[in-house]
Amino acid sequence: MGENNNQQDPRLIQPEIIGELRKDKIGKPILVIELFLLFGIVLAALPLINNQLNDEQSQLYKLIHGAPVDIAPTIPVDTKKEEFLDGSKVNLLAFDTKMKYENIVIQNFELSNGIISCVMYAYNGIIDLDKKDLYLEITSTSDQVLGAIKLVGTFDNVEQHVKLEAYGIQFNPNLSYSGKIVEMTDDDFPQIELNEDTNGFATLTCTKDNRSIQYYFQNKFLIKIDDTVYHAISDYTDDEYLNLLKEYQDKASKLGATVASVNEVMNGFQYRAIIDYDTKYVIPDSVVDYNYYPENALAKKIAYAQKSKGFDCK
């Protein structure tokens, strides 16, 4: 037989598996694209999420932390100490006290016997206290008014050490005293009793040291001033005495020979001026003497002012 006996029957041949095609390998490229897109979205959203997490008003912040509690803003309290105390109010007269009334400053009070030592100056510009009716009113620990001192003198912004004489007051070193600055009007001055005649004429004589000033009134209005001053040579050096004599001679010259004169007497000189407003006399502007009051000045005002300057008025 010519047939090859080694040849297999085709019917008996089984198929041989040489590989397997898996369906999941087909979806991998899509998955990679999806992950890449998701990563890009996350990167792009991070700043927005971060802002939402830091924004107390965002819904995301409120979801995580809860709604913020409203806290009222803190108002800063000004604890700066005022540079000066109000001089129109009662303040302790102590060394560390600084009081200011309008344009005048008084500070560093020291009290001894009947003297108040202090420092005074003008807060701004120049102030002439003699032209104003300012008084330092002194009170005790029981708020009793002990007296008042008229503030006089001209001040600028340079500190001046001043001694104020509290006439009629003797300070007790074991007690504290207070004071305030009072600007008095005509109605504020206390009434004064004068020994008037039937026509309403009366006099008030004020003396201090070597000076005597007699004020004449009619119905309690000033009509005349009679001023007498005596200076002894023995109270001054030669130069001081000569300078003082010249000062009074110049003053008398400005007032006029019919009004004032200076006469040398034994051991000194005497100045006298008689200012009679009934003669229509007007004190020249060149003469500055704050013990000379204008015509029709009130008797109660003159008496109060002169007493506060240390004059004994009767």
From the structure above, extract its key features.
single chain; 314 residues; alpha+beta; Immunoglobulin-like; YehR-like fold; five-stranded mixed sheet; 4 helices; 17 strands
Enumerate the spans where pLDDT stays under 50 for 5 or more consecutive residues. Answer: none
Strands in their spatial order, largest beta sheet: 15-16-14-13-12-17
Q: The CATH topology of the largest domain is what?
A: YehR-like fold
The total tally of domains equals: 2
CATH homologous superfamily label of the largest domain: YehR-like
Overall CATH architecture of the largest domain: 2-Layer Sandwich
CATH class of the largest domain: Alpha Beta
- Tell me how many strands there are: 17
Assign a percent range to the helix content: 10-25%
> What is the overall silhouette?
elongated
- Based on the structure, what is the oligomeric state of the protein chains? single chain
Mean of the pLDDT scores? Answer: 86
Content-based structural category: alpha+beta
Compute the gyration radius: what is it?
Answer: 50 Å
Major sheet attributes: 6 strands, antiparallel
What percentage of amino acids are in beta strands?
25-35%
What string gives the helices and strands in order?
HHEEEEEEEEEEEEEEHEEHE
**Gap from first CA to last CA:** 184 Å
Determine the number of helices (DSSP H or I, runs of at least 4 residues): 4
